[in-house]
Write a structure and sequence with these properties.
Blueprint: H1 2-11, H2 15-26, E1 34-39, E2 47-51, H3 61-70, E3 77-83, E4 86-95, E5 102-107, H4 117-139, H5 143-179, H6 185-212, E6 215-217, H7 218-233, E7 239-242, E8 250-252, H8 253-270, E9 278-285, E10 289-296, H9 304-308, H10 312-318, E11 322-328, E12 332-340, H11 358-368, H12 373-380, H13 384-398, H14 403-413
Parallel strand pairs: 7-9
Antiparallel strand pairs: 1-2, 1-5, 3-4, 4-5, 6-8, 9-10, 10-12, 11-12
InterPro entries: HATPase_C_sf, Sig_transdc_resp-reg_C-effctor, Tscrpt_reg_LuxR_C, WH-like_DNA-bd_sf
Keywords: DNA-binding, Transcription, Transcription regulation
GO molecular function, one term: DNA binding
Length: 414
Amino acid sequence: MAALTAGYDVIRQPLGQILPRLSAVLAEAVPHLAAAELSTHCAHSPFKVAGEAPFATRIGAADLEPLFLAGVPGRPWQGAATIAGAERPVVAVMSDATPRGALLVLVREAGALPVEEGALAVVQALWSLVTSHFDRLATEATPGALARSRAAADTRARVIAELSERHSAALTGLLGVLRSRNLDDAAARATATELAVTALMELRTETDRDKAVAEERADEAFGRLADSLRALLRHSRVQLELGPLDSVRGVAADVAHAARAIVRAVVLTVLEQETTTRVRVGWQITEQELRATVRDDGPGTMSVCELGSARIADRLEVLGGRLEVDAVPGWGTTVTAVVPLATPAAPASADPLSSLGARELEVLARLALGHRNRVIAQELHISESTVKFHVAKILTKLGVASRGEAAALFHAAA
């Protein structure tokens, strides 16, 4: 009965408080320093940790991944694992109540006594109950919650891909310096340090800079790409050529950002060809599309499959674009990424609410309940004029002419 009461107390908490409450409930049976979970059902926040800072904040998802891969649902495991940079005793509990599994790890103090079988059974039962609750919430999620989760998952995938490309570009530049025969040891160290510092500064400022603008001038956007490619190839044996671009047309920030990332990924793939000595990069902008071209003088055997590892085609597909590869053996390869400048129309079967942001979904949910602008403003603690702005954006994104049509669309999706 006590376990049932404890389970009910845990699952009735708001989502953000479930793990801290579960940790507190289990503390008596299994004393621990921190509790961490890796729940693959949750696209919004699959990794969570609860415990006292600063120790809890040093635990990362990578610490849990080996335990997740080795875990067996219904069979709690206790032993030593590397957590927060040190070997620590842990209790790892796996559940298969969600389609892809969920892991709970209790990190214990050094020298802690083994946990009794009865206590392990309680931990397993409570974690299975909690993950069953998670699965129900995911299955019965409202359209707004699903849209936020999908948006978060898409954003996370994009950020991971872009950070990977930036790290790869920075490391390639450093390797070019270290392999250069034109620099002595002191000059190589100084140049490598400069490249590393520059890469760190760009990583730290890129997010804020991209958030600050909704549109970029085409020539300035290409200039930013040119600067990053020059730094990448400064000490490489490969010569960089940049095609002229004097267009001052405005380009949506997400299109410019994606075009830069795609070109960098293609260039990094081209550099893996041993016989390449020259790379030419250019952008061509028309009323309908941006064409980013990378041409090399390599063996001319590159295919779309070789570019697939960089997820270039996937990123273009999201933007409604396409990838063209023209390889001529002995002469080189030309890779062209075509990105539409207009937002591609969503498929008829797509979730109609997926285009809305988190705040717009909150406004739409209240609008669908028949609330007036003043009431919505009071509930969301924003001004009435801001509500009017959000409503106008919602009608535009959903392609409807009235609040009633937007409300009907929301209810239909729900």
